[in-house]
Amino acid sequence: MKTITRRNFNTVIAKGMGGAALLSAAPFACAMGADQDKKKLGIALVGLGSYSTYQLAPALQDTQHCYLAGIVTGTPEKEKAWADKYGIPTKNIYNYQNFDDIANNEAIDVVYVVLPNSMHAEFCIRAAKAGKHVICEKPMGINVEECDSIIKACSDAGVKLGMGYRLQSEPYTQQVKEFVKEKTFGDIQFVSAEAAYRSTGNPDQWRLNKSLSGGGALMNMGVYAVQSAIYGTGENPISVSAQEFSTRPEYFKDTDETIMAQFEFPSGAVGNISTSHNFNANSMYVSGTSGWFQLQPANNYGPLSGRTSKGDELKFPHESQQKLQMDDFAKHVLFGEPNKAPGEMGKRDMMIVEAIYQSIANGGQKIPLDLAPGFGFGG
Ligand code: NAD
Predict the structure, then answer these.
(1) pTM confidence score
(2) How does strand 161-163 pair with strand 133-136?
(3) Does the pLDDT of residue 11 top 50, yes or no?
(4) Measured distance CA(116)–CA(61) in Å, rounded
(5) What is the share, in percent, of the chain residues with pLDDT greater than 90?
(6) Whose CA is nearest to atom 12 of ligand 1?
(7) What are phi and psi of 98, to 5 degrees?
(8) Which residue among 85, 284, 331, 337 is least packed, with the fewest CB closer than 10 Å?
């Protein structure tokens, strides 16, 4: 069995780009080096729950182009604990009330919103109005209107906006995109993507409360499956039909438990996604006219794993996805490198989520989607 490693993967990409592109990148790399020495961006995390505590803050200890400069929390006890652990000065600690004063703090360049979904729009907009670049966790908001408001606020303020879509910076996912772009397995005809876990915890958690989450499995995990279907085909869907399944209504009182949806793509490819808070699933499979490739797992914190019909076992060194994601965003801000997960990507996914809910509300009816080709694709 052949192994595709990061090294030969880069060679493949370099060949795909053509020698000229590779050569012309060299002076840029030198200029970047000079800029890198100048500054690391200061990031303030808003919301110090489990994702900030166990993923983002540790990752920010290893990032090259940004660091943990500040925190915004509604829980006063967390202030001292975080300040002690990460050496955060008092002047860089805010609560939800005095958060807007962050406008006057030059140590904070980026505000990363890691709150329950229904709070994303308010805090992203306040951050933009304070003149800070914004990273917004997934899902971007709880409806498309909120996504538009965030995008507008960032555009009006002239600040950059990125989504917390860590997989967009992840090497197995980038390999998938490369397979699709290079037609390594021919024209893509089918994609299947699953993103799900079994929830048995506190029934009062915000993820099961629609006013805070905006929805259940689809909002939480479904966006990963939607993303896989799109980067697995390289296309935005033109229609969606969807079904909802419920087996534990006493637990999922307010939010969707399991949703399956089928996509049609402009090329004629079709796709099926499954998302659930009732069962575990974490994979993607893509079939083309001359073979297939597969990631399993496809969307956890890694390391991911993958294989292809050519007998290749994909193998990339494991790095924190959050570290890669935040450094990619910092490089976008500092050096103008492509935004791998722009706000439009978050909005596109929410348009698809809304269409899925609309289909379910209409008995599985096929809902057309009017997305421009490539709309929301990152760089
Ligand atoms: P969490 O429940 O662990 O933390 C939520 C934080 O928000 C807590 O600090 C809590 O105190 C605060 N909060 C403020 N107001 C609240 C309210 N009214 N109700 C509940 N909490 C409130 O959640 P989390 O897992 O850290 O998720 C936060 C966000 O990050 C969500 O949008 C989630 O989708 C996203 N997330 C993304 C990933 C990823 O891989 N990109 C992984 C986990 C979570």
Answers:
(1) 0.92
(2) parallel
(3) no
(4) 24
(5) 89
(6) 47
(7) -95, 10
(8) 85
CATH T-level fold of 167-318+342-368: Dihydrodipicolinate Reductase; domain 2 (3.30.360)
Please tell me the distance between residue 262's alpha carbon and the centre of ligand 1 in angstroms: 29
The type of residue at 30 is C
How far is the C-alpha of 23 from the C-alpha of 190, rounded, in Å?
A: 36
Q: In ligand 1, which atom is closest to the CA atom of 53?
A: 26
List, for residues 215-267, the tens digit of each pLDDT value. 999 999 999 999 999 999 999 999 999 999 999 999 999 999 999 999 999 99
Contact by Cβ (8 Å): 161, 150:
yes
**CA–CA distance, 147 with 268 (Å, rounded to integer):** 29
Fold of 39-164: Rossmann fold (3.40.50)
Cα 239 to the chain's mean position, in Å?
22
What is d(CA 296, CA 305) in angstroms, rounded to the nearest whole number?
Answer: 5
Please state the atom number of ligand 1 nearest to the C-alpha of residue 207.
2
* pLDDT of 14 higher than 70: no
- Please answer whether residues 343 and 135 qualify as being in contact, where contact means their C-beta atoms are separated by less than 8 angstroms: no
Amino acid at 282: N
**Ligand 1 geometric centre to CA of 142 (Å):** 14
